[in-house]
Amino acid sequence: MTPSQVDPAPRQLRYTSVAIVLHWLLALAILGIFALGVYMADLPFSPSRLKLFNWHKWAGISILLLSVVRLLWRVTHRPPVLPAAIARAMPGWQTLAHHATHHLMYVLFFAVPLIGWAYSSAAGFPIVLFGQVALPDFVGPDKALAELIKPLHELFAWGLVALAAVHVAAALKHQWIDRDGLLLRMLPGLR
Predict the structure, then answer these.
(1) Is 70:97 a contact under the CB 8 Å cutoff?
(2) CATH superfamily of 3-185
(3) Could you point out which of 23, 86, 135, 142 has its C-alpha 20 to 30 Å from the C-alpha of 60?
């Protein structure tokens, strides 16, 4: 059976529409902000660079808020159980990796923007969301702290993208190698 011939997952085994939208919206936002961060990091000082840094901060705060919504949804709406046949077929290390990857990604959904906010505050650059709403400093101005935090923001961002790549690789493995239809649980439009 080819992946396109796999029947959509039964309704009770699929994520809710809200969970699916939050998943894909957060995925696209994280990829976009990461690409922007990589692009702008080595730009020379200019008005364009300052504008991109502001956009990056706004996107980071938006991702933080979206992560709060996603976590609240996840806590109040239990995800569907892993289909029994898939759970039985997965070796123990894959089950452990599945859970560890998801938990670490959730930690990083919060850690990356919070560390970015702390860095911006410590460096003395306030965050004015969409140029309208001044956010409080996460920490007080402290150049030494800013220099300590800056590489952590980058390291954790790379870690989040690496975990996302592992997550995508596992989903594609289930779809194209195992052919068990697991990916269909999170694809939009299959109700």
Answers:
(1) no
(2) Transmembrane di-heme cytochromes, Chain C (1.20.950.20)
(3) 142
> If you search the block for the tokens 């690789």, which residue do you land on?
169
Tell me the three-class secondary structure of the chain, residue by residue. CCHHHCCCCCHHHCCCHHHHHHHHHHHHHHHHHHHHHHHHHCCCCCHHHHHHHHHHHHHHHHHHHHHHHHHHHHHHCCCCCCCHHHHHHCCHHHHHHHHHHHHHHHHHHHHHHHHHHHHHHHCCCCCEECCCEECCCCCCCCHHHHHHHHHHHHHHHHHHHHHHHHHHHHHHHHHHHHCCCHHHHCCCCCC
Q: What is the pLDDT of residues 60-102, one digit of tens each?
A: 999 999 999 999 999 999 999 888 888 888 899 999 999 999 9
Condensed to tens digits (0 to 9), the pLDDT of residues 95-123 reads 999 999 999 999 999 999 999 999 999 99
Q: Is the dihedral of CA 81, 82, 87, 91 positive or negative?
A: negative
CA distance 178 to 85: 11
Crossing angle for the helix pair 47-76 and 92-122, nearest 10 degrees? 140
φ, ψ of residue 41 to 5 degrees: the values are -55, -40
Task: Spell out the domain ranges in the chain.
Answer: 3-185
